[in-house]
Design a protein that fits this description.
Blueprint: H1 17-54, H2 60-74, E1 85-89, E2 92-106, E3 109-118
Antiparallel strand pairs: 1-2, 2-3
Helix pairs in contact: 1-2
Length: about 120
C-alpha cells in the first residue's frame, strides 16, 4: 500500500494587513500634498493667461491695467500688475513674472513651489 504524501502548500501570497496600512498611509499623505498643489497650478495657469492678455498693451501702465483687470476676473492674489517685469523685445511686448508659494506639510516642514513664466 502506498502512503500518499501531501506536498506542502506554496507560501501565501498577497499583502498583509500591516503592509496594507503602510501603503494606505503613504498614498493618503501623497494625496493630501497633491490636493494642496493642484490649486497653485490652476492659479499659475490663470496668471499665465493674464500675462498673455496683458502683452497686447502698448505702454507699461496699459499692460499693468490689462493685467489687473484679468486678475480681478480670475481672482488670484499671488501676482499683481506692479510685480510684472515688462520689456520690449523688438516690436513685441514681453511680460514676465516670478513668485513663490509655500505649502505647510507638518511641524516645521514646508513645500516651496517656485513659479516663473512669461507671455508667449
Amino acid at each position: 500500500m502506498r502512503v500518499k504524501r501531501w506536498s506542502r502548500p506554496a507560501g501565501q501570497r498577497g499583502i498583509s494587513f500591516i503592509g496594507l496600512l503602510f501603503v494606505a498611509v503613504v498614498v493618503g499623505c501623497v494625496g493630501v500634498v497633491v490636493a494642496q498643489v493642484i490649486p497653485t497650478l490652476i492659479e499659475y495657469q490663470a496668471i499665465l493667461k493674464a500675462t498673455n492678455k496683458a502683452k497686447d498693451g502698448t505702454t507699461v501702465p496699459e499692460v499693468r491695467a490689462i493685467f489687473d483687470r484679468a486678475q480681478a476676473i480670475d481672482d488670484f492674489q499671488s501676482v499683481a500688475g506692479k510685480d510684472l517685469d515688462i520689456q520690449k523685445v523688438g516690436d513685441k511686448v514681453v511680460v514676465s513674472f516670478a513668485y513663490d508659494r509655500e505649502i505647510h506639510l507638518f511641524g516645521p516642514a514646508y513645500l516651496l513651489l517656485k513659479y516663473k513664466g512669461q507671455s508667449s
